[in-house]
Amino acid sequence: MSTIGMTKRIAAASPRLKARVAGGLYLSGVANLFADFVLGSLVVNGDAAATAHNILAHETLYRLAFAADLITVPCYIAVTALFYHLFQPVNRSLALVAVFLGLAGSTLWAVNDFFFLAPLVVLGGAHSGTALTADQAQRLALMFLNVHAQGGNILLVLFGCHVILIGALIFRSTFLPRLLGVWLALAGVCYLTNSFANFLAPQFAAHLVPYILIPGVVEIVLPLWLLVLGVNTERWKEQASAAGGRQ
Q: Which long-range contacts (CB under 8 A, 24 or more apart) does 192-197 make?
């Protein structure tokens, strides 16, 4: 069954089940942490030869990291759809904007992963008689990884705005703790701050990490809450009924 088909069936289920499935899929973000760890351990800033050596020496690990990073895309698209069904009773307009930002961020994430895979292509080509010399291939591979890193900063602008809106929806809801909404919105502000610091003052931004990203722990806390506890079904139905009455 396709992810879209599965999401449609779940959308007709109870809000608690929707929340639990969304929480389980949301936890796929842990795979992205694995990908970031692998990249951090293999990439040597400013040293194309060492980076290329590390990638080729740990090619299987690098490919696993790529797959882990990519798998989060369809998972989060499903999460975005489920979040819309959960939060449209709170404010349909905000929920729609949050969906758009989530889908735009997921699309950019998938495109950005081309630059994650590209180093394997050019480094492999350097040993197969292509026009690139080994040195050129190594430099090109590092350039792709640098572009991937900057692409990550760009997509975090979209996801930062997305999670701020989800945080606002949670805060305005009656079926989830408001603290989670405030925490999530704070994480979104930190994502935006980190991205624009990297765009405008990279040296200053280096001093912000990892502290600026600590509030992002909520992106593990929230899905765990959804997975284990779901939402308060009665309050969700009351809010959905009130929203229906206003329409």
A: 192/156, 192/157, 192/160, 192/161, 192/164, 194/153, 194/156, 195/153, 195/154, 195/156, 195/157, 195/160, 196/157
Cα–Cα nearest to 25, from 95, 88, 73: 73
The domain spans of the chain are: 3-246
- pTM: predicted TM-score of the whole model, two decimal places: 0.88
Alpha carbons 178 and 173: distance in angstroms, whole number = 8
pLDDT tens digits, one per residue of 105-135 = 999 999 999 999 999 999 986 555 556 788 8
DSSP, collapsed to helix, strand or coil, labels residue 1 as coil
**Structure-token pair, residue 237:** 């139905």
Contacts of residue 49, defined as CB under 8 A and 6 or more positions apart, other chains included, come to: 135, 138
Find out whether 86 and 99 touch, Cβ atoms under 8 Å. Answer: no
Amino acid at 100: F
Closest CA to 222 of 11, 79, 102: 79
